[in-house]
Specification:
heterotrimer, A alpha/beta, B alpha/beta, C alpha/beta, B: alpha/beta, Alpha-Beta Plaits, 2 domains, 10 helices, 27% strand, elongated, C: abc type-2 transporter like fold, four-stranded mixed beta sheet, 16 helices, 6% strand
Chain lengths: 320, 315, 377
């Protein structure tokens, strides 16, 4: 173990499927109590990595330790020490709230002495006191999701894996959910989140961006926005927005242009120099600029910038 | 608008399923060439609205006119002029990309020459030209959605109804997808799109936020944000928990949320509150990197509207 | 109805049939397997009937008579007993299905030219086997008596009397072949009822299950175009299967085909319209492939098996049931097929059956086309 403060330690982890390298020598470390976000496009290797960390897939080479247990040699113990919750809540809709909790307590063999207090805790946490005998299928999405979280952590796992836990959930429930996650993290649980949902990524302490099996960036959400954005972002409001887009897409000094509603977002090497250049370039073509100002990039801008910078194009490549 | 007929007009549209109201007296209008977003969480009633506008589901009451056709009275005539992309992938996975396009072209009576020209152009825009003979079931999630869009556009519809087209699609593919949508505006296509990704709402000209079958509000994202009562503050700190305990319940602070780098606060008046908050934090012996006002997100608008409604009901 | 849209539907359906290994299996394997299963299952299950014999006389002649049972493939002489009681006990215990009792005056009565009564005891639990057993034993006895008669006549001085090679005795010995001839056309009808319904029972339900229906119903395609577009390819597939079944009947089971091919095709097209529409209707109503295929199996197999005249002759059914059989389309098709295979009856003489089939074809096509709604609930 690399010191008591690391809950997940991954060293040169590789997974090959035939000729295809799904995970290409990834190394990372998640501290105890950290909320660790794992981002990347579909097929980047996110789920393969998570499956290896959960002891469901054997790594081709490299090492991964979860709570000090080696995932390749002790997969059973690893599974006993982690909690997993997917976007598709794996609760039984035809069982009641307490029946679901009891079932998962049985699955994770929660000790008899601990059982009552854990079930009570889960019911309180999910806010389902008084609804223990309701069928799970009749609960609203937000409650279900909190119940699923309760089920996943009944056995006090040291590491919790969440797969797009709040996609499509209403914002109020989502905020409540993340509040609970932050409370657990404060108690020392390491939370591993996979998502390509940028709203979710903002809740993580540290993010790792993975593309085609390799880590391409890591840092806190703020660091990513400050460090990794290749260039500055400009917001442009003007008339004839469609024509302006076509003009700017090929214009010198503009790395990328995209429409956002009634405005354009431009990626430029340097904001201060570009503002004047873009304004005059557009006016040469008879387009008047109403507003042009630098804006702070969103995580999505960073994500797109980083993944397209590596391919040179924003289009998908064939899947092998 | 003055005399300009709307391309989509929805009036008091209502639908319930076994006693549960899914869409509750919903009304809105969309002009020609607009990208209009129906934004809201799962279960807000977005899909039901789309199905009724596509003429595949009958409303309980209320009316809707799409591209000049009354979809309640004569849904079949509206179907000539619109394209609907359901939330679940609606194409044949055991047919190739080209076979799917060919099938929908024939269903809409598109001539072979026009079909070939359009298919080539749309597939190129989608970056899918090299996948024409691949089975649709073997495409990635993002490409499936783009193929759905290509099939929906093969007959030059006047109205495009897209139900959560970017659900499960990664940001890069999502951007491609939106690029195609914007390029359609030159052809005068009117687009109604639903999304549960609140951040995606920013890409629409106008949005309607839906919650439990009702509309919370409807306007351009910029105007909605400008009208948000109060402000959003961002505090960057490594002690979010401790600071949040001190600030929660302070007068002028309506909510405190822990995020990855620190805290987000909903406050009344940023200018007067920032100095006060700095004092409170300093007095508690805690530290922060920065406190600043940030632009509210659509999620902030949503939460404010829902809690505002709840406060209204309590009073 | 727009012919291009209909063709688009049909073309899409053909591609899907070709690409789906399971549908190929249903198309090719199901008729073959069912033909073999029913062809053999119904007609060949009564060989080697276990037999007890009680020879009260024990003469050379009586033993000679009983040997004929021993040498028949239809019987297996298990034991020769010496008391009547023993024989009855064996029947009760199920040790044998049949008992033959030769009376003590067997040879004396025969030589004096009198009639001998042979007693046959049959376990009637399985009426089909019992009937067959009865038939086989009668055939053996008949043949024996023929021989005895000839010998007797020769002894009486009628020299050079040719042994009467009666057509009767041959028919008896060809009992099994004869039943095969009536069974096989019935099996063809039965197989097509089940396969035809099954083929289309999946088609609409599959589109609902896979989520492709929601997109399809948002287009201008009409319910009629969907139905005909989907049924046309399956009509071709169904006719192919009918030919496979008929070919097996003729070349594998050796059943004659005496009628006109076009009568066969006309009736098959009508019957396929009935069963394909029925499957389509179930598919529309059930909305899941599993439910639709189960409903279609139950709804077609049982009536076609029990009420079409396949195993019970219709004219021997109670009057009420006879009326009910008119509502079973397989009844008409089966009657036509039997005539086409065995008799070659002119079509005009079968007009009632054709009219019945045509009526059902029309009725079910209308019901099926009306059932489908371009709406979500």
């Amino acid at each position: 173990m690399n010191g008591a403060s690391s809950a997940v330690v991954v060293t040169d982890l590789v997974k090959r499927f035939g000729d295809f390298v799904a995970v290409d020598a990834i190394s990372l470390e998640a501290r105890k109590g950290e909320i660790f976000g794992f981002l990347g496009p579909n097929g980047a290797g996110k789920s393969t990595t998570i499956r290896m960390l959960c002891g469901l897939l054997r790594p081709t080479s490299g090492q991964a330790q979860v709570s000090g247990l080696d995932v390749a040699t002790q997969p059973e113990q690893v599974r006993q020490n982690i909690g997993y919750m997917s976007q598709k809540f794996s609760l039984y809709n035809d069982l009641t709230v307490s029946e679901n909790l009891n079932f998962f307590a049985g699955m994770y063999s929660v000790g008899r002495s601990d059982l009552t207090s854990r079930l009570d805790w889960a019911i309180d946490m999910a806010g389902l006191r008084g609804r223990e005998n309701s069928f799970t299928g009749t609960l609203a999405a937000g409650w279900k999701q909190r119940l699923a979280l309760g089920c996943a952590v009944l056995h006090r796992p040291q590491v919790l894996f969440l797969d797009e836990p709040t996609s499509g959930v209403d914002p109020l429930s989502r905020r409540k959910f993340w509040d609970m996650i932050h409370t657990m993290a404060a108690e020392g649980v390491t939370v591993f989140v996979t998502t390509h949902y940028m709203d979710e990524a903002e809740y993580c302490n540290r993010l790792v961006l993975i593309d085609r099996g390799k880590i391409v960036a890591s840092g806190s959400p703020l660091e990513l926005k400050q460090k990794y954005m290749a260039g500055d972002l400009l917001l442009v409001e003007c008339d004839e927005i469609g024509t302006a887009l076509e003009l700017l897409q090929g214009a010198p000094g503009v790395d990328d242009a995209a429409i956002f509603g009634n405005a354009l977002h431009l990626v430029v090497p340097k904001a201060s120099a570009a503002i004047a250049a873009v304004t005059s370039y557009l006016s040469q073509h008879g387009i008047t600029v109403q507003t042009i100002e630098p804006i702070r990039p969103s995580l999505e801008d960073v994500f797109v910038s980083l993944t397209t910078a590596r391919t040179g194009a924003a289009t998908e490549k064939p899947i092998p | 608008m003055t005399g300009v007929p709307y391309t989509i007009e929805v009036h008091e549209l209502t639908k319930s399923f076994s006693g549960v109201v899914a869409v509750d007296h919903l009304s809105f209008s969309i002009s020609k060439g607009e990208i209009f977003g129906l934004v809201g969480p799962d279960g807000a009633g977005k899909t039901t609205v789309m199905r009724m506008l596509a003429g595949v589901m009958a409303p309980d009451s209320g009316g809707a006119v799409v591209a000049g056709c009354d979809v309640v009275a004569s849904p079949e005539s509206a179907k000539q002029r619109l394209s609907y992309m359901p939330q679940r992938f609606g194409l044949y996975e055991d047919l190739t990309v080209d076979e799917n396009i060919g099938f929908y072209a024939k269903i809409f009576g598109v001539k072979a020459a026009a079909r070939d020209e359009r298919a080539a152009r749309l597939l190129a825009a989608a970056g899918m030209s090299e996948f024409r003979s691949r089975l649709a079931g073997k495409l990635s999630g993002g490409m499936k959605q783009k193929l759905g869009l290509v099939c929906a556009l093969i007959h030059t519809p006047e109205v495009l109804l897209l139900d959560e087209p970017t659900n499960g699609v990664d940001p890069v593919s999502r951007r491609d997808f939106w690029c195609i949508l914007y390029s359609l505006l030159n052809e005068g296509v009117t687009i109604l799109v639903t999304t549960a990704y609140l951040d995606e709402a920013e890409r629409c000209h106008r949005i309607a936020l839906m919650h439990e079958g009702r509309m919370l509000f409807c306007d351009t994202p910029a105007r909605l944000k400008a009208n948000l009562p109060g402000a959003v503050l961002s505090i960057v700190t490594s002690q979010p928990r401790e600071i949040s305990e001190r600030l929660a319940g302070q007068s002028g602070v309506s909510s405190v949320m822990i995020v990855g780098d620190g805290l987000h606060l909903m406050v009344g008046d940023a200018a007067t509150l920032i100095p006060q908050l700095k004092e409170i934090i300093a007095a508690a012996g805690l530290s922060y990197e920065s406190i600043e006002q940030v632009a509210p997100t659509v999620e902030d608008l949503f939460v404010e509207a829902v809690t505002g409604t709840m406060r209204g009901m309590e009073q | 109805m727009n012919i291009n849209r209909l063709l688009a539907m049909a073309g899409k359906e053909i591609i899907q049939i070709k690409r789906d290994a399971r549908s190929i299996g249903i198309v090719i394997a199901m008729p073959l397997v069912m033909m073999l299963a029913f062809g053999y299952g119904v007609s060949f299950d009564t060989k080697h009937i276990p037999l007890y014999v009680y020879d009260m006389e024990g003469s050379r002649q009586s033993q000679d008579f009983l040997k004929r049972f021993q040498s028949s493939i239809y019987f297996r002489v298990v034991k020769s007993v010496t008391t009547y009681r023993e024989l009855v006990q064996a029947l009760d215990d199920g040790k044998c299905q049949m008992g033959i009792v030769v009376p003590a005056d067997f040879s004396s009565r025969l030589s004096s030219g009198e009639t001998v009564a042979i007693q046959a005891l049959i376990d009637g639990t399985d009426s089909n086997s019992a009937n067959l057993g009865m038939g086989y034993s009668q055939a053996i006895i008949q043949a024996y008596s023929q021989q005895v008669t000839t010998q007797w006549q020769q002894r009486q001085g009628h020299a050079n009397v040719l042994p009467p090679i009666s057509v009767d005795s041959r028919t008896w010995f060809n009992e099994s072949l004869e039943s095969m001839a009536t069974i096989v056309p019935g099996v063809v009808a039965l197989v097509m009822a089940v396969v035809g319904t099954f083929l289309t029972s999946l088609t609409i339900a599959r589109e609902w299950e896979r989520g492709t229906m929601e997109q399809l119903i948002s287009t201008p395609v009409t319910p009629m175009e969907i139905m005909f577009g989907k049924l046309t390819p399956y009509m071709v597939v169904g006719l192919f299967d009918t030919c496979v079944c008929a070919a097996m009947g003729v070349w594998w089971f050796g059943v004659p085909f005496r009628g006109h091919v076009w009568v066969f095709f006309l009736s098959s097209i009508l019957f396929l319209t009935v069963v394909l529409s029925m499957g389509y209707f179930f598919s529309v109503v059930a909305k899941t492939q599993l439910a639709a295929s189960q409903i279609s199996l139950i709804a077609t197999f049982l009536p076609a098996f029990l009420l079409s005249g396949f195993i019970y002759p219709i004219d021997q059914m109670p009057a009420v049931i006879q009326v009910i059989t008119h509502a079973v389309p397989a009844r008409y098709y089966m009657a036509i097929l039997r005539d086409v295979f065995l008799k070659g009856t002119p079509i005009l003489l079968m007009w009632r059956d054709f009219a019945g089939l045509a009526l059902f074809a029309l009725l079910l096509a209308v019901v099926a086309s009306r059932a489908f709604k371009k709406r979500l609930e």
